[in-house]
Specification:
The complex is a heterodimer of chains A (about 240) and B (about 375).
Chain A lengths: L6 E12 L6 E12 L3 E5 L6 H9 L6 E6 L2 E2 L5 H11 E4 L11 H11 L4 H14 L15 H13 L5 E5 L7 H17 L3 E5 L11 E6 L2 E7 L2 H8 L1
Chain B lengths: L1 H10 L1 H32 L1 H6 L3 E5 L15 H6 L4 E15 L5 E9 L10 E5 L9 E5 L2 H4 L13 E4 L2 E10 L9 E5 H7 L9 E6 L5 H11 L3 E5 H15 L2 H30 L1 H9 L4 H37 L8 H28 L9
Parallel strand pairs in B: 3-8, 5-7
Antiparallel strand pairs in B: 1-9, 1-10, 2-3, 2-6, 2-9, 4-7, 5-8, 6-7
Helix pairs in contact in B: 1-11, 2-9, 2-11, 2-12, 9-12, 11-12
The chains are: A alpha/beta (about 240), B alpha+beta (about 375).
Chain lengths: ~240, ~375
C-alpha cells in the first residue's frame, strides 16, 4: 500500500539487529508494513518474530539499521533524536503490556502526564484527564491510586493516558495479555471505538488470538519479516485461528 | 511535571526517609563537628580576642599567643622608641594558682594591664566598676570564674569576695565577660604592677608589649618598623598573630586530624547513603521513567525531574541538620561547653557540600536515565 493521506504508518525494508560480531541477532530482516487511519491494525506472529522491534521502530523509540519509516506523513528516519522525541510526545499515545502507571500518582495525575509533557498547565491537564477517565468508565475515581484498581481498570487508565492529548497514532503492546478474557474484550472494544470514532490509527501487537475479532487489518510476521498484511475477513481470521 | 516528580519521590516513603536521613545526618555531623572545631580554635586565640591590641610585640622565638616567653621590663621602652609607634604598654599573662576559701587550689589566667591606660581591659563589665581595678589587691574575674572559683556547695564568687593568688589577697571588684581560653582556665584581670606582686618572682616578668601604630600608619607598617628596629623581639599584627596561632594548632596538634576524620566520615556517609538510596530509587522507577521517555519526555526533562527530587530532599535534610546542629549549639552555649562557633561561612559551606552530595547522587541517576532506551517499556 503506497503512502496516502489516509496512511498512518508506512515502513519500508526495515532491518534491525542487536549485539555484535558472532552474537549479532537480526530481529528484522527487511520488513515492510503499513497501517491506515481509522483502523485497528493487529501485528501477530510467534515469539521472537520481531513484532515488538517493529512496534518500537514505528514509535520512534528504536532506530532501524536500514529502511525508511513514515509516520503521519513525517519521515522518522530523517529526524534528529530530539525531533523524534517531540514528534512522539505530540502525536503518539502508548499503551503498555504492564500498564506502566506510576504507583505513587493518582489516576488523574497518571492520565495527565502526556498533557503536562506537552506544556499544558496543571489545572487544565487534570480537567482533561478527568474527562478522559470518565470516557473510559472511571468517573469519580480520579483520586484513587493504581493499586486500588483491578487489572482491567488499570488498563483503562492507561488508555485514558494514551488518548488524553488526542494523538493520531495509538501504539499498544500486548494490551490484553495481563487481563482475563472478559476484561480483554472490553479493552479491545474500547480501542476499536477509538480507532473508528476519532479517525486514529491504533496498532496493536498481540499474541492473544481472543482479540483477532476486533481487528480491521492483520499483519502476520515471521522471522523478522511481515508475511501478510490484509483486511480481517472471516477467511483471514479462520486461517489465523487455525 | 515537577510536582509529579516530588510526589513520586515522597510516595516511596521508605526511600524518601532514608534519603532524608542520610542528608540530615551528613549535614548535622559536618556542621556540629566543624562548629565545635571552630569553637576550639576560637578558644586558642582567646588572649587576642579578649585583650584586643592592634600590634603585639613578643619574644622573638614565640610562635603563638599561648606560649608567651618573658621579656625584660625595659623592652617596653625599646618598642616605644621605634618611629611609627604611637604608644606601647606592658602586658603580663600567666597561669597562676588561686587558693579558694576552702583551701583548694584552682589555676587561673592572670592578665596584668597597664594601670594608667588599662589597655587590654575586658570589653564588657557585667557587674562592678572597671576603674576599681586600680585599687590595691583588686581583680576583675570573668564569668567562667563564677563556676571555676566556686567552692563545692558554696555560692558562686561575687563582687567583694576575697581569694588568694600566691598567698596574696585578691579582692573581686568586678565581673566581666570574656572569651573562654583553650585550657578552660578563667581570666583574672588586674593591673600590671599588681600582677607582678601576685606572680612568683622571676628575672624577666613582662609577657608582651601592646602597641598602637602612629597616626597614618597601618598596623603592618608599624610591625615592619618594629621588626626592623629592635632585636630579640618580634612584632605581629593582631590578624597575623591570630592566623599564625591557629596554623600552629593545625600543625602541632592532632585536633584537625581528629575532627577532619569525623567531618570526612560525615561526608562519605552522606554521599554513600544518599547516592545509593537515590540510585536504587531510580532503578526501581526505571520502567516508569522509560514509559515517560517513550511518551516523549526528553533526557533534559527527566534529568530536571531527578535534580528537583534530590535537591528538594537535600534542602529539607540540610534544614533539619542545620536546625539540629543549632539546637546543639544553643545547649552548648547554655552549658558553656563544648565550644561551638557557627559562622555564616560554615552555614554556607555545609549547604554547598550538601548540594554537591545531591548533585553527585543525581548525576549517577541521570547517567543511568540518559542511557535508558525508551524501547525498554516494550520488553514485557
Amino acid at each position: 500500500m503506497p503512502p496516502s493521506p489516509t496512511t498512518a504508518v508506512a515502513a519500508f525494508r526495515i532491518t534491525k539487529g542487536f549485539g555484535s560480531g558472532a552474537a549479532r541477532t537480526m530481529a528484522l530482516k527487511g520488513a515492510d508494513f503499513t497501517a491506515a487511519l481509522g483502523e485497528l491494525q493487529l501485528i501477530v506472529g510467534p515469539s521472537g518474530c520481531g513484532k515488538t522491534t517493529l512496534l518500537s521502530i514505528i514509535a520512534g523509540t528504536l532506530v532501524p539499521d536500514e529502511g525508511k519509516v513514515l509516520v503521519l506523513g513525517e519521515e522518522l528516519t530523517q529526524m534528529s533524536k530530539g525531533r523524534v522525541t517531540d514528534f512522539r510526545r505530540r502525536n503518539i499515545g502508548f499503551i503498555f503490556q504492564q500498564f506502566n502507571l506510576i504507583p505513587t500518582l493518582t489516576l488523574v495525575e497518571n492520565a495527565s502526564v502526556p498533557l503536562l509533557l506537552n506544556g499544558v498547565p496543571r489545572s487544565k491537564a487534570e480537567r482533561a484527564a478527568n474527562a478522559m477517565l470518565e470516557q473510559v468508565g472511571l468517573a469519580g475515581r480520579g483520586q484513587n491510586y493504581p493499586r486500588q484498581l483491578s487489572g482491567g481498570q488499570q488498563q483503562r487508565v492507561a488508555i485514558a493516558r494514551a488518548l488524553v492529548h488526542d494523538p493520531r497514532l495509538v501504539i499498544c503492546d500486548e494490551p490484553t495479555s495481563a487481563l482475563d478474557r472478559e476484561t480483554g474484550h472490553s479493552v479491545m472494544g474500547l480501542l476499536k471505538e477509538v480507532a473508528r470514532k476519532a479517525d486514529r490509527s491504533v496498532i496493536v501487537v498481540t499474541h492473544d488470538p481472543r482479540v483477532y475479532d476486533f481487528a480491521d487489518r492483520i499483519a502476520e510476521m515471521e522471522d523478522g519479516r511481515v508475511l501478510t498484511n490484509q483486511l480481517a475477513s472471516p477467511e483471514t481470521l479462520h486461517a489465523l485461528h487455525g | 511535571m515537577f510536582h509529579l516528580a516530588l510526589k513520586m519521590l515522597v510516595g516511596d516513603r521508605a526511600k524518601f526517609f532514608m534519603l532524608l536521613g542520610g542528608l540530615f545526618f551528613a549535614a548535622l555531623l559536618m556542621t556540629q563537628q566543624c562548629a565545635v572545631f571552630f569553637g576550639l580554635l576560637s578558644w586558642t586565640t582567646s588572649h587576642i580576642s579578649n585583650i584586643r591590641s592592634k600590634v603585639w610585640v613578643v619574644e622573638a622565638k614565640v610562635e603563638q599567643v599561648n606560649e608567651l616567653k618573658p621579656l625584660r621590663d625595659t623592652d617596653v621602652s625599646r618598642v616605644r622608641s621605634v618611629a611609627g609607634v604611637a604608644w606601647a604598654v606592658p602586658l603580663y599573662v600567666s597561669v597562676l594558682q588561686a587558693r579558694l576559701a576552702d583551701g583548694n587550689f584552682k589555676p587561673i589566667l592572670c592578665v596584668g594591664l597597664d594601670s594608667t591606660s588599662l589597655v587590654g581591659r575586658p570589653a564588657t563589665i557585667l557587674e562592678g566598676r572597671l576603674e576599681d581595678i586600680r585599687l590595691p589587691n583588686s581583680v576583675i574575674i570573668d564569668d567562667l570564674a563564677l563556676q571555676r572559683l566556686k567552692t563545692p556547695n558554696g555560692p558562686p564568687p561575687k563582687v567583694g569576695d576575697i581569694f588568694e593568688i600566691n598567698d596574696r589577697e585578691a579582692r573581686i571588684v568586678a565581673i566581666c565577660k570574656s572569651d573562654r581560653a583553650f585550657f578552660g582556665y578563667p581570666y583574672v584581670f588586674t593591673t600590671y604592677d599588681q600582677a607582678l606582686q601576685f606572680a612568683p618572682r622571676q628575672r624577666k616578668m613582662l609577657s608582651a608589649v601592646l602597641a598602637e601604630p602612629a597616626p597614618g600608619l597601618t598596623p603592618q607598617e608599624t610591625v615592619d618598623r618594629i621588626n626592623a628596629s629592635v632585636t630579640g623581639m618580634k612584632a605581629w599584627t593582631e590578624d597575623t598573630f591570630y592566623k599564625d596561632t591557629i596554623i600552629w594548632y593545625f600543625k602541632n596538634t592532632g585536633i584537625p586530624i581528629s575532627f577532619g576524620v569525623t567531618i570526612i566520615l560525615g561526608l562519605i556517609v552522606g554521599i554513600a547513603i544518599s547516592g545509593q538510596t537515590f540510585y536504587s530509587f531510580v532503578l526501581e522507577n526505571l520502567k516508569n521513567l522509560g514509559a515517560l521517555k517513550a511518551m516523549g519526555a526528553s533526557n533534559f526533562k527527566l534529568a530536571s525531574m531527578l535534580v528537583v527530587q534530590v535537591m528538594t530532599v537535600g534542602l529539607i535534610g540540610y534544614g533539619l541538620g542545620m536546625g539540629a546542629a543549632s539546637a546543639f549549639g544553643a545547649a552548648a552555649a547554655q552549658r558553656g561547653n563544648p565550644p561551638f562557633y557557627l559562622p555564616w561561612q560554615l552555614v554556607a559551606g555545609v549547604l554547598a557540600v550538601i548540594l554537591f552530595i545531591c548533585l553527585a547522587a543525581a548525576s549517577l541517576a541521570i547517567i543511568k536515565v540518559s542511557r535508558l532506551e525508551a524501547a525498554v517499556v516494550f520488553r514485557g
